[in-house]
Write a structure and sequence with these properties.
By secondary structure, the chain is α+β, with helices and mostly antiparallel strands. Among the domains are: about 200 residues, 2-Layer Sandwich (Cytochrome Bc1 Complex, Chain A, domain 1); about 210 residues, Cytochrome Bc1 Complex, Chain A, domain 1 (2-Layer Sandwich), CATH 3.30.830.10; about 30 residues, no CATH class. The chain contains 20 helices and 14 strands. The chain has a six-stranded mixed beta sheet, sandwiched between helices. A four-stranded antiparallel beta sheet has the order 10-11-9-12, with helices on both faces. The termini are far apart. The relative contact order is 0.10.
């Protein structure tokens, strides 16, 4: 029996990899997917070019990246990068905004603009044969944007909407920089609401001319020939010129506080952060990334666990059965510095307890064992492999490596570098993080909110590391720091409700106990709901009317728009004529006539309405008073023609 089970298991395992009808023909493994061969060069004007060949990819991507993030904004142009992102769909030197949108949608391509505090990137994703035709739109967005004043006015409402619709995680991602850094790194990636109306076309043109320089530019492509990538880089030379190297002001780490009210019914976010590392040291960067992955950066949302809210360990053990608490580690790195920490989300009633747990975990991050470090390496390697499967992310990664003068190239090389790092070095990096002075990010108001909520959570006593920081204060719905990754758009499942057992009446319970129906709730009986044809006719009539309205709107929309336009023009002309009449009347005004008229009205004596107690007409009273000539009317007078 044991031998037979082994044979069956072997047959099933072999059958899972065979793709043909015959068992003897085996499908060979697929070639490496993603960038396989990297070609690099640097032009005389300073533009860095990177081109990667891929195997089996139908979509290509090309990225033009400038080292011109929000950290390079000054007091005169704060919020310029947010407007540049919004203006990436605007008109350029060779195409209008409408033509760009129409052609890209027809060809199945899209153009995106992303930025952070260090860089701003313009990326075109399109089918391989169409890149030569569509690369002009990428150039218009990156190096030849017109920044018309009327297009900026149209996008002010979009900028305001971005501030309103910003997800909580993305807002936390932005606020953490303001609290951790003093200096240019504290500049937000979003324009402040008070400065939206002050951004003009001259502001954006000056910012682009000052920061979009060839020496701070990198062009990277995935799936595009190296010669075409060089031709695209040569087109940028007409706009930007080589200048001196861009200096990075030395950032100052501080213990700041940033808060934001998300409104009633929202969650509370707390973050604890320490000084991290920059991208100038790749090995140190990989060590910190392994530590973050070993701590757990989120939920199990890969592969078959796309809807699984089970948190990655050991961070997930901090929830201790709290369904509303989530923990995650983050590692944010820039050219010369970075931050590392733990972010937590909870309800306002348990915010104090969650904050102490997060700070305690960060203070003891050096206690990660070898098994945790190995798990962190595997998680990091998986994320690097998934990163290279997307051509857009791969091209942006290559451009960022070129700007930072690093050479990681493909996922195979990065995975090998992760494997080459010993566990002792990772543990030493964790000890360095734990030894740093702890910076706590607090919420806005006092603990009175927790007293009003009358929470039952047992708070831990303060440990020595936390006692070095400021006192913790909390308020509901306030957000503070960030997590390391942007939201991926996957909606999380709602919090589970309390479980109510329902007993199936066809179960085995009646055979065991005859009184089981007294305290249990049974399922309803199976019934076939009858569908009435009358109701179906009503539904069809409504759908047909809706369909006819849509057809009528498509057919008549331009005619109706023309009629409305003519009406507006007619009303405008009438209004303008009224204004001209009022102006003419004002020009004809005479002060002497006005005064004489007023005096005449003041000295005027009204005629009496009665004569000798009889009501007579006005003309007769005027004759009786002698004002007018008296006329004798005779009844014998004959009318003479």
């Amino acid at each position: 029996m044991k031998k037979l089970s082994q044979i069956l298991y072997q047959y099933r395992s072999n059958r899972s990899i065979y793709t043909s009808m015959l068992l003897q023909e085996v499908c060979f493994p697929q070639a490496a997917y993603g960038p396989t061969e990297i070609q690099k060069t640097k032009m005389l004007n300073g533009i860095k070019i990177v081109a990667a060949r891929v195997s089996g990819a139908l979509m290509t991507a090309c990225t033009i990246m400038f080292q011109a993030g929000s950290r390079y904004e000054t007091n005169d142009d704060l919020g310029a990068t947010h407007f540049i992102r919004a203006m990436s769909s605007g008109s350029g030197s060779n195409s209008t905004a409408f033509a760009k949108l129409r052609v890209l949608q027809q060809q199945g391509a899209y153009l995106t603009c992303t930025s952070d505090r260090q860089t701003i990137a313009f990326t075109l994703r399109c089918p391989t044969p169409l890149f030569t035709t569509l690369k002009g739109y990428l150039m218009d967005a990156a190096a030849r944007c017109s920044y018309h004043e009327w297009e900026i006015d149209d996008r002010r409402m979009l900028i305001t909407g971005d501030l309103t619709r910003m997800p909580a995680e993305q807002r936390v991602l932005d606020l953490v920089q303001n609290a951790c850094w003093a200096g240019p790194l504290a500049n937000s990636m979003f324009c402040e609401k008070e400065r939206i109306d002050s951004i003009t076309s001259d502001t954006l043109m000056n910012y682009a001319a000052l920061n979009f320089k060839s020496i701070h530019c990198a062009v990277a492509s995935v799936g595009i020939p190296f010669e075409e990538t060089i031709e695209l880089a040569e087109m940028i030379d007409s706009r930007v010129r080589a200048t001196s190297e861009q200096c990075h002001p030395q950032p100052c780490f501080r213990s700041g506080i940033e808060t934001h009210d998300l409104g009633p019914g929202s969650d509370t976010w707390i973050a604890v952060a320490v000084r991290g590392c920059g991208t100038n040291n790749v090995n140190n960067l990989f060590r910190h990334a392994i530590v973050a992955s070993a701590c757990g950066t989120g939920n199990m949302t890969q592969g078959q666990h796309s809807l699984d809210r089970t948190p990655q360990g050991p961070n997930g053990m901090l929830s201790q059965g709290d369904l509303f608490a989530d923990y995650g580690a983050f590692n944010i790195s820039y050219a010369d510095t970075g931050i590392f920490g733990v972010v937590a989300k909870s309800k306002a009633a348990t915010a104090c307890h969650v904050a102490y747990l997060a700070s305690d975990f960060l203070a003891n991050v050096s206690k990660l064992n070898s098994q945790h470090i190995e798990d962190g390496k595997k998680r990091l390697q998986l994320s690097l492999a998934l990163h290279d499967e997307d051509s857009v992310k791969a091209s942006q990664g290559l451009a960022l490596q070129a700007l930072n003068c690093t050479s990681i190239d493909t996922a195979d090389k990065s995975i090998a570098m992760v494997d080459a790092i010993p566990n002792e070095d990772v543990a030493a990096a964790a000890e360095t993080l734990a030894a740093n002075h702890l910076r706590l990010v607090n919420l806005k108001t006092a603990l009175n909110t927790l007293k009003e909520n009358k929470t039952t959570a047992q708070l831990k006593p303060k440990i020595d590391v936390i006692s070095k920081a400021k006192n913790l204060t909390f308020a509901p719905r306030c957000i503070n720091f960030e997590i390391n990754e942007q939201p991926n758009g996957v909606k999380r499942k709602q919090d589970p409700l309390s479980y109510i057992p329902i007993i199936n009446p066809r179960s085995i319970l009646p055979l065991i106990d005859t009184n089981w129906k007294k305290d249990e709730i049974g399922l309803p009986a199976l019934q076939q709901e009858e569908k009435q044809a009358v109701r179906l006719i009503v539904i069809r009539r409504k759908k047909m009317k809706k369909h006819q309205r849509h057809k009528l709107w498509k057919r008549m929309r331009y005619r109706w728009a023309r009629v409305k336009k003519n009406r507006r023009i007619k009303k405008e002309k009438i209004f303008q004529n009224e204004l001209l009449a009022m102006v003419k009347q004002a020009n004809e005004f005479s002060a002497e006539q006005y005064v004489s008229g007023k005096l005449q009205k003041a000295n005027h004596t009204p005629l009496p309405t009665r004569w000798r107690h009889k009501r007579l007409p006005e003309f007769i009273i005027r004759q009786l008073l002698g004002i007018d000539k008296k006329i004798n009317y005779k009844h014998t007078d004959v009318y003479k023609a």
